[in-house]
Amino acid sequence: EKNMGGGEEVVVLDFWRSPYAMRVKVALEEKGVKYVTKEEDLGNKSPLLLEMNPVHKLTPVLIHNGNPISESLVILQYIDEVWPHSSPLLPSDPYLRSRVRFWGDFVDKKIYAAAKKLWPAKGEEQETAKREFIESLKLLEEELKDGPFFKGDKFGYVDVALVPLTSWFYALEMCGNFSIEAHCPKIIAWAKTCQQRESVAKSLPHPHKIYDYVLELKKRLGLE
Amino acid sequence: PHSVGALHLVKIHQLMCLCLTKICGSVRTHPRRGRYICVNQHRGQISQKRGEFKEVVMEEVRVLGLWASPYSFRVEEALKMKGVEYEYAEIDIMNKTQGLLDCNPVHKKVPVLLHTGKPIAESLVIMEYIDQVWKGESLLPSDPYERAQARFWAKFIDDQLTPAARRVLMGQGEDAEKAREEAENFLKVIEEEIKGGNKAFQGKTMGYIDLVGSVVTYWFPVLQEATGKELVTEDKYPAIWAWGERVLSCPAIKEHLPPWDKLVAYFRVFVAYLNSRSPNS
């Protein structure tokens, strides 16, 4: 069921490189919700962004009928609750829901956190970040045993949480001089399956674009 | 038949990786790997000591907690608000006979809720679970937008404010002072939100954000007394203080909070231990 009736206004304050913003776009695409994006330049934040997310002043922000919601995982749960009829992201069983929430939190606190440390670091610091990244990814990989996706045969919350980072995989591998596939082949296979979904293909930038950006940023920050 | 030598020990934070039903849930000490939860499926019996067998009662609802932990408190209080009967088992991080043990990820992974043997970790995840499974007084608001707000502020308190406040109150030297500015900015944010009448903090009945917020309104002041450092005071943050007064004076909460003096004493020892271990942390 497409988004309900007239008068619904859905705006995403976006940033093309932000994997958090990509999560929101993938979710809305999955649900078939019509939305508009406003690209933010985080070096020059718009008054709308500052008004809608005064706490963190970061993307993404979902503005639904004028009401702002921040924090990508909070937004995902909101989207699932407001548009429940198509492509549920979270399972309805309370225990399975709790597992999915746990893994979403894990993706943020372990995998994304390690990735953030990985690309700018060098030497021992980078080795530590790499280790953390791979170990966390391996732990998560075990959750793929029941199906192509984390929930089994349905694309869901944990998939949406992690898939944006796959656009960063190439950059991470180049910066860290390692192969993710060598350590976590199932994750790479999963990523390829996800790429075939329209929602993902539409919302993720090409990995080379991300890498170009990372190189540029490293140069600017003097991190080569 | 179960033998002590064949215990299958699992680090608490790996519990969620396993598909488990009817696990024992008792806390054991492995001579090399420290404290773990026994995830064996005992058939009605468990050996506590060599040669001693006790009937194990598989309680439907079990909380593995730590009396001094604000995260443990939230979960227990949530269950109590729903009128759920549960069995509580204390995870003794501070082993008095051996001196203080290493508090690392295990500390963060308390509490764990076991419901018909299925484990759920992470206090915020547990609270959502409790709210979904047991009817009665709702913990989270029913409106999706208000729910999103409550979740946002809970994450803010747990992921932004509390780590900074911990560095201020439990840390030392330069790092503690650097963290102070961060922590004070975060506190100002919440102060402004409450002053601005944000509905998330203004619930008529006790709920999710009040329980989550008890770390700010009760545990921070406790740490302040234990370490002699200042952070949340009535004159600096009157709105936060008032929020705290409202929540903590609620008879049910007052009755169940860990006693002030005991908690202060606990954290005095705990912080001294942390600082003795790594003077640069």
TrEMBL record, chain A:
Its EC number is 2.5.1.18. InterPro entries: Glutathione-S-Trfase_C-like, Glutathione-S-Trfase_C_sf, Glutathione_S-Trfase, Glutathione_S-Trfase_N, GST_C, GST_C_Tau, Omega/Tau-like, Thioredoxin-like_sf. It catalyses: RX + glutathione = an S-substituted glutathione + a halide anion + H(+). It is an enzyme of class 2 (transferase). GO terms for biological process: glutathione metabolic process. SUPFAM superfamilies: GST C-terminal domain-like (SSF47616), Thioredoxin-like (SSF52833). It holds the Pfam family GST_N. Residues 8-87 form the GST N-terminal domain. One of its GO terms (molecular function) is glutathione transferase activity. Residues 93-221 form the GST C-terminal domain. Keywords: Transferase. It comes from the Eukaryota. Gene3D superfamilies: 1.20.1050.10, Glutaredoxin. Belongs to the GST superfamily. This is glutathione transferase. It comes from Opuntia streptacantha (Prickly pear cactus). The lineage of its organism: Eukaryota, Viridiplantae, Streptophyta, Embryophyta, Tracheophyta.
UniProtKB/TrEMBL annotation, chain B:
GO terms for cellular component: cytoplasm. One of its GO terms (biological process) is glutathione metabolic process. It is an enzyme of class 2 (transferase). Residues 59-138 form the GST N-terminal domain. One of its GO terms (molecular function) is glutathione transferase activity. It comes from the Eukaryota. The keyword Transferase applies. CDD domains: GST_C_Tau, GST_N_Tau. Keywords: Signal, Transferase. It catalyses: RX + glutathione = an S-substituted glutathione + a halide anion + H(+). PROSITE patterns: GST_CTER, GST_NTER. InterPro entries: Glutathione-S-Trfase_C-like, Glutathione-S-Trfase_C_sf, Glutathione_S-Trfase, Glutathione_S-Trfase_N, GST_C, GST_C_Tau, Omega/Tau-like, Thioredoxin-like_sf. Residues 143-267 form the GST C-terminal domain. Its EC number is 2.5.1.18. Residues 1-17 form the signal peptide. Belongs to the GST superfamily. This is glutathione transferase. It comes from Opuntia streptacantha (Prickly pear cactus). The lineage of its organism: Eukaryota, Viridiplantae, Streptophyta, Embryophyta, Tracheophyta.
